[in-house]
Automatic annotation (TrEMBL):
GO terms for molecular function: DNA-binding transcription factor activity. Signal peptide: none annotated. This is K-box domain-containing protein. GO terms for cellular component: nucleus. It comes from the Eukaryota. InterPro entries: TF_Kbox (IPR002487). Residues 110-130 are annotated as: Disordered. Residues 1-66 form the K-box domain.
Length: 130
């Protein structure tokens, strides 16, 4: 480009220069528009990523709250179990209260067969009536 300029006059060179400047402005305008479009697209993608991060943050907080509640329940259960271990009875059981369930405990004597006595401890029967 530019090798065939030796035979051109001043007027032809000015015309060529004006055409090059117009072409260069069009190229720069097109380049600017492409960059502006890319910026808008990246801003939109950034907004979507930010929204997704906020949703994940909410899920993490919910899971942390659930974990804290489960740890609290586990600690309460372990404390109740520890109380039962410290009791002087040979049986371990936990008393769990539920207002919707009635509990009936019955003490049954072991049945004797043919004048043979069993030395087994009495059986406790637990019946739950909803």
């Amino acid at each position: 480009m530019g090798q065939d300029l030796s035979g051109m006059g001043v007027k032809e060179l000015q015309t060529l220069e004006n055409q090059l400047e117009i072409s260069l402005r069009c190229i720069r305008t097109k380049k600017d528009q492409i960059l502006i479009d890319e910026i808008h697209e990246l801003n939109h993608k950034g907004s979507l990523v930010h929204q997704e991060n906020m949703e994940l943050y909410k899920k993490i907080n919910l899971i942390r709250q659930e974990n804290a509640e489960l740890h609290k329940k586990l600690s309460e259960t372990e404390a109740a179990t520890e109380v039962n271990r410290d009791s002087r009875t040979p049986y371990n059981f936990a008393v769990v209260e539920d207002a919707n369930v009635s509990v009936n405990l019955e003490l049954n004597s072991p049945q004797q067969q043919n004048d043979v006595q069993h030395t087994a401890p009495p059986k406790l029967g637990l019946q739950l009536h909803p």
